[in-house]
Amino acid sequence: MKLCLDSLTVTNTEPVDLIRAAKSAGFDLVSLWVQPPPIFPLQLVTQAKASACKDALSETGIGVGPLEVFDLTSAEAIKSYRPALELGAQLGAMTASAINVRNTDPVAVSELFAQLAELAGESAFCPSSPVTPTIR
User: What is the reported pTM?
Assistant: First the structure.
C-alpha cells in the first residue's frame, strides 16, 4: 500500500514544497493540482513549474498520485482539460480526480465521466471519482 499526501492537506504551498513535505513526512505519493482554478493559487502546477516539479519528484522518489481536479460540468469542459491531463502525464501521473459540483443530471454526469476517461486514456492514465456531493 502506498500513502498519498493530498494537495489540500498543506494549503497554499508551492508544488515543489508539497513534494518535499510528502517525502519528509514519509508519504509515497503526492496529489498535484493541475487544473485551474486551484483553491490555493500557489498550488497550481503550470508548464513553468513543471521542470522544478520533475526534479523534485526525481530527487525525492515521490510519485504523483491523482491530479486535481476535473469537474464534470460539460463536454466543452472535458475537452478543455486536455492540457492539464497532458501536463500531469509528463509528471508521471496515473490518475485524475473527477468531481461533480454543478451537474444535477446523473446520466449526463456518467456520460461526462466516460468522456473524461477516454481523454485521460490518451495520456495513458485513468480518472478516479472520489465521493463528492452535488451542490444545488
Answer: 0.89
How many domains in the chain?
A: 1
Is residue 133 a part of any domain in this protein?
no
Residue 15 belongs to domain with CATH number: 3.20.20.150
The tally of CA atoms less than 13 A away on the side-chain side of residue 23 is 13
* List of E strands, the chain: 4-5, 29-33, 63-71, 95-99, 126-128
Residue 61 inside a domain? The answer is yes
Domain span at residue 9? 4-128
Per-residue pLDDT of the chain (136 residues; tens, 9 = 90+): 999 999 999 999 999 999 999 999 999 999 999 999 898 999 999 999 999 999 999 999 999 999 999 999 999 999 999 999 999 999 999 888 999 988 899 999 999 999 998 898 887 666 665 534 333 3
Query: What whole-number distance in Å separates Cα of residue 22 and Cα of residue 29?
Result: 7
